[in-house]
């Protein structure tokens, strides 16, 4: 926990720093514009450059983080899954486990590859299109960026629906949260996380239904630890996305519309990235659970 | 305060000059403007900016220096441009404006190398 909290808080610090930089440079540029009004356009361009230089660092890093996790996961799948499958087959108990579907292996590796090769580059493209639209409003790619975002959310929701097809609850309910509380919690997420809120709650439900059956294999404590670990990148991404949108909202009255709009767009794109990172979290979760299952079966066979 | 005083004195002297030696007036005026500009930059702006730089945090120092350089350049070029336009040298004025903008853009582009590197590294994600 001592390591998770600073990891989650680091981006908050960076975004607060970005906020200070924007306020400071905003004030300096307002003064300069007042002194030299004839160069307003040039000064605006320089200000956007400065914002890109100083304030996009957390967004870049998040994108790179998710990209690197996806890449490593793909390598892991290629190297580990044949071994895991063979191990499970050799131990002979794979098909006896409740709610076990071998298709999940193939499917989760497919989603990781899809995320790495198509979804994350598409988010990068949306990010760049937003940046170009704001730096040079005459060459506006806002519709294209929106189209990419909507298409990505659609793709991710289809994948999540497919995930829920694969994962059927084996009648073992270990999720002890009261149904009413659970439902209101879902509503809270749906209403407060813009753009991807409902999709996020659906993915949580899917993960929950799988964890109900997986907990019979691993036990609740380990399962919760695994869930917390795999959800760290997603939580971090959502946090950064929120902070960017918050920054855009706070700066709107004082700054140029393009600057607050740029921050808002980055926030939106990061929300989409967060939902892609849920897919990666799913795949990572299954890998860990399957490894544990393999270890358990191996121990059982020896015993 | 001293700047106001110099401007008022110069105005009076230039008016005298205009009445007594009207042919020399424009030359004297131009020389005076350049000398006054030099005085303002060397004895007022640069010492003041040097003082400002000392309170700027280190990570922001390169950008603040660049910003101050751009401001001084824009200020000088604007004054020279207006002078040229006053004497109807429009082409020279637009060349002056173009050169200033080109210098500022080049200096900033050079400074933003790190940003472009990041930008291209993001483009690398497509491959």
UniProtKB/TrEMBL annotation, chain A:
<keyword id="KW-0812">Transmembrane</keyword>
<dbReference type="InterPro" id="IPR014194">
    <property type="entry name" value="Spore_III_AE"/>
</dbReference>
<feature type="transmembrane region" description="Helical">
    <location>
        <begin position="222"/>
        <end position="247"/>
    </location>
</feature>
<feature type="transmembrane region" description="Helical">
    <location>
        <begin position="42"/>
        <end position="60"/>
    </location>
</feature>
<feature type="transmembrane region" description="Helical">
    <location>
        <begin position="150"/>
        <end position="173"/>
    </location>
</feature>
<dbReference type="Pfam" id="PF09546">
    <property type="entry name" value="Spore_III_AE"/>
</dbReference>
<feature type="transmembrane region" description="Helical">
    <location>
        <begin position="81"/>
        <end position="100"/>
    </location>
</feature>
<keyword id="KW-1133">Transmembrane helix</keyword>
<keyword id="KW-0472">Membrane</keyword>
<protein>
    <submittedName>
        <fullName>Stage III sporulation protein AE</fullName>
    </submittedName>
</protein>
<feature type="transmembrane region" description="Helical">
    <location>
        <begin position="18"/>
        <end position="36"/>
    </location>
</feature>
<feature type="transmembrane region" description="Helical">
    <location>
        <begin position="106"/>
        <end position="129"/>
    </location>
</feature>
<feature type="transmembrane region" description="Helical">
    <location>
        <begin position="270"/>
        <end position="295"/>
    </location>
</feature>
From TrEMBL, chain B:
<keyword id="KW-0472">Membrane</keyword>
<keyword id="KW-0812">Transmembrane</keyword>
<feature type="transmembrane region" description="Helical">
    <location>
        <begin position="92"/>
        <end position="109"/>
    </location>
</feature>
<keyword id="KW-1133">Transmembrane helix</keyword>
<protein>
    <submittedName>
        <fullName>Uncharacterized protein</fullName>
    </submittedName>
</protein>
<feature type="transmembrane region" description="Helical">
    <location>
        <begin position="60"/>
        <end position="80"/>
    </location>
</feature>
<feature type="transmembrane region" description="Helical">
    <location>
        <begin position="28"/>
        <end position="48"/>
    </location>
</feature>
């Amino acid at each position: 926990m001592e390591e998770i909290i600073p990891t989650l808080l680091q981006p908050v610090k960076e975004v607060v720093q970005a906020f200070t930089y924007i306020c400071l440079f905003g004030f300096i540029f307002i003064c300069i514009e007042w002194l030299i009004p004839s160069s307003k356009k040039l000064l605006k361009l320089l200000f956007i450059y400065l914002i890109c230089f100083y304030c996009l660092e957390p967004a870049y890093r998040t994108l790179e983080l998710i990209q690197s996790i996806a890449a490593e996961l793909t390598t892991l799948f290629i190297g580990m899954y044949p071994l895991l499958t063979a191990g499970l087959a050799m131990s002979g108990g794979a098909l006896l486990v409740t709610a076990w579907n071998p298709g999940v292996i193939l499917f989760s590796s497919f989603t990781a590859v899809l995320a790495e090769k198509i979804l994350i580059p598409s988010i990068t493209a949306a990010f760049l299109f937003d940046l170009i639209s704001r730096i040079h409003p005459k060459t506006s790619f806002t519709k294209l960026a929106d189209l990419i975002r909507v298409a990505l959310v659609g793709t991710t929701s289809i994948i999540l629906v497919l995930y829920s097809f694969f994962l059927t609850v084996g009648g073992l309910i270990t999720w002890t949260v009261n149904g009413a509380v659970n439902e209101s919690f879902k509503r809270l997420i749906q209403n407060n996380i813009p753009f991807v809120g409902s999709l996020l709650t659906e993915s949580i439900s899917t993960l929950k239904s799988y964890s109900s059956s997986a907990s019979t294999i691993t036990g609740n404590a380990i399962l919760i630890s695994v869930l917390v670990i795999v959800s760290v990148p997603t939580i971090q991404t959502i946090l950064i996305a929120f902070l960017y949108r918050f920054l855009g909202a706070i700066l709107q009255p004082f700054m140029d519309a393009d600057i607050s709009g740029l921050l808002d767009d980055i926030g939106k794109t990061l929300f989409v990235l967060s939902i892609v990172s849920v897919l990666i979290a799913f795949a990572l979760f299954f890998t860990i659970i399957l490894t544990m299952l393999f270890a358990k079966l191996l121990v059982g066979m020896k015993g | 305060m001293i700047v106001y005083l110099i401007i008022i004195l110069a105005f009076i002297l230039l008016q005298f000059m205009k009445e007594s030696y009207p042919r020399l007036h424009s030359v004297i005026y131009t020389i005076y403007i350049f000398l006054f500009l030099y005085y303002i930059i060397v004895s007022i702006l640069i010492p003041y900016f040097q003082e400002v730089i000392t309170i700027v945090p280190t990570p922001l120092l390169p950008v603040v220096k660049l910003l101050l350089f751009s401001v001084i350049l824009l200020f000088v070029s604007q004054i020279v441009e207006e002078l040229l336009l006053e004497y109807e040298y429009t082409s020279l004025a637009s060349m002056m404006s173009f050169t200033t903008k080109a210098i500022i853009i080049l200096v900033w582009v050079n400074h933003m190398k790190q940003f472009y590197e990041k930008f291209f590294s993001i483009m690398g994600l497509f491959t």
